[in-house]
Amino acid sequence: MMFKKCIVFLVLAILSTGTALAQYDLDHFYYSGRQALIDGKYSQAIDRFNILAQLDSTVYEAYFFRGIAKYNLGDYVGAQRDFDRTLHFNPIYTPAYHYRAITLSRIGKYDDALRDLEEAVDLRPSYTGLYFSRGVTYFLSQQFDKAVQDFNIFIRKMPDEADAYLNRGACYLYLQDTVKAMADYNKAISLNRFDPEGYIRRSRVYAMQEKNEEAIEDLDTALRLDSTNTYAFFNRAILKYEKKDISGAMADLNRVLEEEPGNALTLYNRALIYAQVGDYAAALDDYDRVLNINPGNVLAYFNRAAVFMELERYREAMDDYSQAINLYPDFAKAYLNRSYAKSQLGQYTSSKRDYDIAQQKIREYQALTADSTGHAAFADTARKYDRLLALDAEFARKDFDNELLQYRDVDIRLKPLYKVQPADSVSSYSSIARKFADAALDEFIAGSPLAVKFAASARSAAARNGREREEVDRRVRANRSSDNLFAKAIMETENRQFNTALVCYDEAIEKSPETFFYYINRGALQAEMIDFIASMENNVQVLTLDNARTVKTRVQDQVTRSYDYTSAIHDMTRAAELNPGFPYTYYNLGNLYCLSSDLPEAIVQYTRAIDIYPYIGEAYYNRGLVLIYLKDKEKGCIDLSVAGELGIQDAYSVIKKYCRTEEEL
Description:
- The protein is an all-alpha fold.
- The chain has 32 helices and 2 strands.
- A two-stranded antiparallel sheet has the order 1-2.
- The longest helix is centred in the middle third of the chain and has 21 residues, at 348-368.
């Protein structure tokens, strides 16, 4: 890859100006290690530099080049330690600061990376590549103005480097300056007309400006340069569809599926088009494949039901609408459509009941439209749920078997939030080995009008039986006390009646503002509501260093909607203030910060929970996953091991996949 070629180039440049080693043995291992690094034989290079370090532990180049080899093998912890050793023996060696900064940036330690880059710039202000790397780091830490300044410096010194314009254009796009972004993409294309990336990025700006012809022309050019670029095919399909070029859109989607037959998002879009052109059998086949990949996707059920309705297969349509409602009970349009299906089957009483429920949901939605969380969106009957969905980042995923419309790492998932829930709720997660002793928790559970427990569950349990619900409702009608309202909120959450549950939590907190469990549950509910809505929309934001280069790293310029967990975090923070010694609140905060993409703060909160009570297996598990995601595999794997010891059996499958040792020496 270009990234590794750039490393080799830097290595050769450094070696060409380096000081010759005095002894033959040192020379032998030095040059053989260098050659192995150039050839991409990184384990062999590590072996040679290990021997060199053993022969003379003060040879800082041995640690530096070994760090580069480890970096290329994905051992960022080991690479950082070797760059640390390099600087211990030679504290003014600028390349070590530079590459340690790149390593730190890879694991999300942007502040540390920026400090290293500042040091490197102070030592060698004429080293142009430093400004590029610092610009990328500023971009990744979302300091776009500073990133632009560094790319400006780099471009003044190296005005013919196309990647610099691509990156600066990405910054301008985040700063909502499409004019400057377009100018930079034009410049990048003029400098390197054979790179498809410039055309793909410029097509995005054209699409934002509703210049679809120009956008399609750029994607055509990109595909002439790279005929296997599925991201370009997918985006061109969306644009062709908007131009009513149905056959062209289908051809592009089919081309994507040739490369990625398990790409659920493409299957979903193709199913929508099949249905719109009347090929219902093909549409049903694609929807079946989508639901086989992700059986929890509400939109796939909803739109498959529409196909059944067209075929007058009303019972199957009713079943799919029921599935959509079970997944999201506030989906007013699903109630309306199921009402019609039931009327066609002669179920007039049930049809009327669905219609009335739909109207009530619509009224609730209209009363809540000013609510920024957007949790009532599915009651909006004016909204279209049969439009093609676009994907802005990380499109080329071969299996795409995670949630259809919400990006999560397909292999590792966080253990869920802790909350008060019915005592007979089923949790698929192992319980912690030791029970946390907390008098307030015991007293709260004992005084609850509903049998409850405090635990982590991935999903709400099945709907409660009718008599139990009636008893809770009777208690609330008789006395709207805070504990009765809290019990009703739990019941409504179990039945995924989120709006009603939220109202009950609000009233309970208003009556008893010092009960910290109320804040924990309301925060958990708000997070679940927001997360569910996010899963129904195509909003993916991924900022990564592109492995094409070392210091000239491309960054993604896609701007997507993010979801605000501030209210949930506020509730958890308030709970922590009311009872600062309760560890699970900090665990929950760790999850919420992780969902908010603040991974460093997530680690802080998980650590705080563990410091208070070191037997929360889920906290070790989640912290381990975050550390692995940030490429801190060594610490992450230690956490996963502890989680396994504490009963989190899923930890061992993750350890097997991510923590297997390799013979590098």
